[in-house]
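Narrative summary of target 7.
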Amino acid sequence: AEEGASAHTTRRNAKKTMSSLTLADIQTIETAQELHGQIMAALTAPTAIRVDASKVGQIDTASLQLLAALWLTASRTDSPPILEQPSPEFRRVAGLLGLAGLFGLGD
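Modeled conformation, tokenized:
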């Protein structure tokens, strides 16, 4: 199983530059430091942040806490983060922790 989030990349579309963060299959306390670094790098770039959560098969409170901090911080800017394709496990754990609304996940 893949661990940690993939390297932060930047891509340009017709409207604006997007920072893209792809979450790996396993996002736990063991990968939290790496995820934190990637989130901090994404926050320092003057771009919108897109988070691909489609591959998440395991996620814990440490990783969701970092992502919640990203959402709260970036939501105060002109470019709130975008969550793409959250996996069933991401949705389940975010719901259990009461974070579904923060991430814009419906029931």
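The radius of gyration is 13 Å.
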